[in-house]
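Q: What would this chain look like folded?
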Amino acid sequence: MTGYQFLDDHLRLDQDFTPASIFTLHQKQKQHAITQEYVLKSNEDKPYEWVIGAFGFFRNMDTDSPVSFKQDGVTSLLEDNIKRNLPSTMTFDITDNELPIPSLFTEKSYSAALYHQSTYHFQSLKGLSATAGIRLDYEHVSLDYASSAMMNYNYSMVSRGMTIADALKTDVSLDGETSKGFWQIVPKLSLQYDFNTHNRVYASFYKRLSVWRLQCPDLFRPDSIRTAGCHDSANEGSIAAKFGPYVAMGMPQASVDMILSKIPVSEKIKDVSKSITYDPEYSWNYELGFHSEPVNGKLQIDGALFYIDCNNRQIAQFSPNGFGRMMKNAAGSYSKGLEISILSKPLKNIGLTASYGFTEAKFTEYKDSARVNGVYQEVDYSGKYVPMIPKHTFAMGGDYTLNVDKRCLEKVILGAQYTAASSIYWTEENALSQGFYGVSNGQISFLKDNLRFDCWIKNALNQQYNTFYFESLGKAFAQQGKPRQIGITVQYSF
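A: My prediction, written as C-alpha cells:
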C-alpha cells in the first residue's frame, strides 16, 4: 500500500481579532508526504492467524509564516511596553509604521515501524480467541528555522543639563536547526469470547502513541524586546562608544550604564530547543466490552467500559506573550468512563438509534507556571478536569423509509437526529466551561437507482453555543457554533 499527499495552503489571519490594526499573519505552507506499508497475512479459517508488516513514512513541510505588526501594534504593544520601564527623563519612539517579522521553517519527519499480531482460536473451548501483538516504532523530526525582526527608533535623555539623543537600529535574528527522535515499543493483548455469531464479549489492553511534531519557535516577545540570547557585542560596544564625549563632560558612568540597560540591542538567538520541543504523548488503554443482538435483526447493543492512563499528555496553552498557542506536556492524567449504543429496527421501514457516553478525564500530576495577579507563579492543576473533553455526550435519531416504487422514484426517507454534550472545560484551571447544549438535525431523501437527492437542515432550533475558547493579547474570545443551516446534496453512485 502506497500513499502520497500534497498540500498547498494559504492562511490569512487578523491575529488580534479586534478592529484595531495590531498584527496580521499570512502563512503559506507546502507539504509533501509519502507512506509505504507492506503486509503479509495468513490464510483465513485456520485456528492460528497472523499478520506481519512494515511501515514507513516521510514528510517535508515548508512554512513561510511572516507576522506583521501594524501601526497600532507598534505603538500599543512594542513602544508602550518599552516606555513603561523607562525613567521620566528618557524618551523612546519607534519610527517604523509597520514592523515585519519574516519567518521560514522547514520541518522534515520520518518514521518506520515493524509489527506482528497473532490470533489463536481455541479448539477445546469454542468461541474463545486470544490476540497478542507488538509494534516497534521509531520517529524522527527535524526543524530548520530562520526568523528575524528589525526596529528603527529614536531615544533621548536629559542628565545634568545635557541632552543625549540619537537614532538607532536593533535587530533580532534566530537561525538554526534542531531535531529529536525516539523509539517506542507498542504492545497489544486481547481476549474475545463469541457465544454465537451475534453475541460476544471482549477485554483488551494496548498502548497508544500520539501524533508528534516540533512547534515553531517564538521569536518576538512584546513584553521584552531584549530577548534572551547572545548579544552582538560589537553592536552594543558601538552604542556605548557614543557616550564617550558625555562622560568626558561629566556625566556619571552610572547614568550611561542605566541608559545602555534600557536600549534594545541586536541579538542572535542560538538555542531555542527548550521552547520548540515537547515529549510525545502515550497512554495505556484498558477496555471491557460486549456486542449483543438479543433480537436478531431487530435490536443491536454495543457497550464498553474503559480506563486510560495517559503520560505526557499534550496540552495546548495560550502563549505567555499573548500571541497564539503553544504545546506543553502534563506529567500525568487519566480518563475513565463508558459508552453504549443501541440500534433498533422495530418495523421493516423504521430505524432507531441512541448512544450515550460518560468520560471523567482529570490530571493526576501537572504543575505549571501561570500569571496570577500579574505575577508568574507555580500552580498545581492536579485533580482538575482535562480541557476540551465533554463529560457527557448523547445522541438519538430515527428514520422512516417509504417505498414508492414509481418510475421516477423508488424511496423516500425521512430522518431526524439530536446530539448533545455538556461540561466542556476550556482551560486547565476549570474556571470557564460550556454548559449543556443540544443540536437538532433533519433531512428528507429521494432515491432512484444510483441517484440520491437530500434536503437537509442542521441546528434546526438555532441553538447558540460555543465550540472553542481562546485568548489573545489578554482578551478572551469564543467561537460560536454554526447557526441554522439549510441545504441540498446530490449524490450519484457509479
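Confidence is low (pLDDT under 50) at residues 219-237.
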